[in-house]
Input
Amino acid sequence: MQVPFVTTVSFIDRDGIVNLQYAVSAGSEHEARDEIARRLLNQEVYNYSISEVRPATSSEAASLNLTDGAIMLLN
Output
């Protein structure tokens, strides 16, 4: 069963660090981390680090309504 995780990814550019949050539907925190990393690599994004992966709160999960395997940019 897949559940939503909130993942914070830090990107480094010439102006400094930008933090973006993604919602990732996955079976575990490890799978969520792997899925976001896989998708970033497919987009040829290399200057990033995954700083946090946490389960979505119940209210976040209800509002996200992610399908299995989906990723959504939150901010």
In short: The helical segments are 29-42, 58-64. The CA atoms of residues 39 and 45 lie 9 Å apart.
